[in-house]
Amino acid sequence: MDATFWDRVSSEPFLGVIVGIIGSLVALVSGMLFWLVARSLWYGRVRRLRDAFWHGLGRELVGVIGDPDAEAAWIARARSHHPDVLRYCLNEYMIRTCGDYKEGCARLYRNLGLLDRDLAELAKAGWSSRMRALRRVASVVTEDHRAEVAALAGAGGEIRLLVAQIMGRIGTVDDIVALLGAWRITSRLSEYPVHVMVESMGPDVLRGVVARWDDLGSSEIQRIVLGAAAKSVPGACWSLLPRAACDPSIEVRIAACHAARAITSPATLGLVVELAKDETWEVRAQAMKALATHHGEEAAAVLLAALSDGNFWVRQNAAQALASHGPGGIARLEAVARSAGDRYARDAADHVLTALALGRGDSAPTSAVPALAAGGAA
């Protein structure tokens, strides 16, 4: 362009604006193209480095795990690869494996110093850096690294969830009780990290946490711990049930009903019978569900009486529980449907009997239901 053009640009503001816009667009497009080319070259290099690992040391990995000398030789050769390549490739193995092989990969990861790098990244201020590091260390940290992970317990969102999961696996009873004691649950959604933590605990740790029941901080957390203990360590759970059944919190008394439903025994039957008299309908309704797994005359008598309860859900759950007692329970429901003087009890029995008949694709009257139940699962 000659001087005349630039003279026009300087003398005509509108033309100058157009030239400026065009120049900016050219610079922007050029920058984007440069970035795309550089990124493509970078990822091409990364892919080649990873492929070199997969076709070399990656193929030998299965054969060396479990042999200390072979592992040491493999580590010495692996140090020639970039740490990011080793970190990525070993993580790919650990994601897809389990048991001794996964632990062997984790041991190599730690011995290569990759875990130390990840732990250093946990101290960085950037959320994304800490999040990526936590995802990597979740499978490889040990009890020796509890302090570094626990330091992030105050973070929110996904970081807090990962910390809970990791601490459930590697934390001691004291670590976990301290973490749970400071945890604040504000909604059902915020309970999820606690569920993840509790379900990650081994039986011995969970027994220790149950023994520290009074230190757990809130009734919501006590409910979660009691529910997990009923499935994993029922003996430790049973020692708490009498206390939980009398707890001032509705949450805990409901958890006692759930636990008693999972731990079916003559002892839990007596506890559920008492919970069936609770002043709160929510507890009574859950006690009816617990009686579904406690068969016998005493349980049936409580369920029949509950068909006249003042709350709809208590009546409905009682009718459902009777139906789960098999032909005998269904026969009791039929008797209520035919001759009970309480209209609400008849309605609850009719509802369940009709649902049973429809569930079997049967249009027969309810008197046919016991025969159907005898031929199939109730």
Description of the molecule:
The structure is a single chain. With 378 residues, this protein is mostly helical. It contains 23 helices and no strands. The longest helix is centred in the N-terminal third of the chain and has 43 residues, at 13-55. The protein is elongated. Mean pLDDT is 84; it is low at 360-378.
Tags for this model:
single chain, 378 residues, mainly alpha, 23 helices, disordered C terminus
Order of helices and strands: HHHHHHHHHHHHHHHHHHHHHHH
Task: Please give the number of β-strands.
Answer: 0
Please tell me the overall pLDDT.
84
Strand content: under 5%
Secondary structure class reads: mainly alpha
**Cα distance spanning the termini:** 91 Å
Sketch the major β-sheet. Answer: none
Helices, by number, come to: 23
Low-confidence stretches: 360-378
Please give the radius of gyration in angstroms. 32 Å
Query: Which percent range fits the helix content?
Result: over 70%
Question: Which quaternary structure do these chains form?
Answer: single chain
Large-scale geometry? elongated
Explain the layout of strands and helices:
Elements: H1 3-11, H2 13-55, H3 57-64, H4 68-78, H5 83-96, H6 99-111, H7 114-122, H8 127-137, H9 146-150, H10 157-170, H11 173-181, H12 192-200, H13 203-211, H14 219-232, H15 234-245, H16 250-262, H17 266-275, H18 281-291, H19 297-306, H20 312-323, H21 327-339, H22 343-359, H23 369-375
